[in-house]
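Database export, one record per block. Field names are fixed; values are copied verbatim from the stored entry.
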Amino acid sequence: MRTIAVLGGGIGGLAASYYLCKSPQVAKVVVLESSSRVGGWLWSTRRSDGAVFEHGPRGIRPAGAVGRNTLNMVDDLGLGGDILPVPYSHVASQNRYLYVNKQLHRMPSGISGLLRTVPPFSRPLLLSVATEILVKKGKEDDETIHSFISRRLGKELADIAVDSLCRGVFAGDCRKLSVRSCFPLFYNAEQCRGSLTLGMLLGSGPSPVVPPGPLAQRSIKESWAQWSLRRGVESLPESITEYLQQSGKVQLHRDAAVKHISPSAAGWKIHLEDGVVSADHVISALPAKALSAALPSSCQPLIQQLQDISSVTVAVVNLEYEGSILPVTGFGHLLPSSEDPGVLGVVYDSVPFPQHNRPDGQTTRLTVMMGGAWFQEVFGDPDAVTEEHLLVRATEAVQRHLGVTTAPSWSWVALQRDCIPQYHLGHFRRVETMCNFIKEKNLSLSLIGSSYGGVSVNDVIFNGRSAVEELLGAKV
């Protein structure tokens, strides 16, 4: 491969470029980012007084092969000394809340929590888990998350806990999201073992092998639940960018929106506002809809499938309050859609990551997440909604849920448009059809990023790596 073009400078595009740089087979990588900054949704504000606020993902999980893979990358980039780990024993890992019936309820944890009836649930969770083993296997090749959990664990758990979880993770509606694509572990557990419980206990099929480096080994030894970085998660894309620029192989272009890509004798011609880039192969980390607009008409079936992948807009409101204002300590709380469709949840940032508070004087940092699949219904057109309105809704939620009567001393409203792709029912089939089309037409094109195979930071980084290994036919 002489020249590989990477479309999109979010964490997916940067990760793919990082892995391309590791290979002697690759001579040149051209990264094209449409905005003035790289890193995509990994976006941190560092205030001059030392406080750090996240406008996208905040804590990254170290678990599994994909979690180890990210930690190995963090190690390689020399960021190990900046890591802020949160172990499972930490209060932020132990205490997670649901806001149901206008009250905060701590999610049951540990054996005692499973044995007792804990509100808002009407029976002990262990009963649901115990009877789950007897439930017959589903017949369909895909199912909504709500239907799957209702069938296996009961409607109450689906309506309250899983509805809330899907809003927290995907900002999405569990009645539309696919269990096979959003929670492959659950789907595979049922397919392989006939039961979620048995699948979790005995394993449910092969998973990728990623040997843990020193940092990943430390995360296992110290039992981390999640981690961040001293200067915020944006440090990760910043460090990758620095690595790419020092490699001598990479040209990184900001403000370089891809208008159109057309096939050429050698591969592709990528048309920008002010010029053309030629490449042997294109790795697209663009959102599905953005790629669909750039492809030539000869790719019509692929364009159609890409357009069918929708995404949601989330309002992320960071708030800082003077003093200690939380009535409870923990990671935060989520809301089922029946409680308040507009507010997805509130993260108590100061609890897991007190290091991000300003060093002098006590403060409490919170993040309110709003909208998602309910954005239009609650707030109307994202182009018409004002920051003032979103700020008022966020502070009202904090007042109502946490009893905070003082006004925040500082706030930041970020409207993250189309930030989380929605894997609706049958998503796996769409992705399969797209991959088959690319193979059949022998297109020198790889699809990566959150539109296809996982929305978490870990998934996106790992998918970038997998695409590079598939392209080069070698481990990187």
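Remark 1: The longest helix spans residues 155-170.
Remark 2: DSSP finds 18 helices and 19 strands in the chain.
End of record.
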